[in-house]
Specification:
Blueprint (H helix, E strand, L loop, with lengths): L1 H22 L33 H7 L4
Length: about 70
């Protein structure tokens, strides 16, 4: 019984550490004192190039490959 608990311990520690990265992934990175370089496409408007369609069951059925 004790050996099985010891085998689970590294797994639990790993899951705990990795899940912390999903909660606070680099949330406190400051740009103070750093050179902020503006990209050439910083004012790029993606809405002009993208169409958004609602994902409905009918659309999924239409896009599903026929056997």
């Amino acid at each position: 019984m004790m050996k099985s608990k010891m085998k689970l311990m590294p797994l639990l520690v790993s899951v705990t550490l990795i899940s912390g990265c999903t909660v606070l992934p680099g949330s406190n990175m400051s740009t103070m004192g750093k050179d902020v370089i503006k990209q050439q496409d910083a004012d790029f408007d993606l809405d002009k190039m993208v169409n958004v369609y609602p994902l409905t069951p009918r659309l999924i059925d239409q896009l599903r490959p026929r056997p």
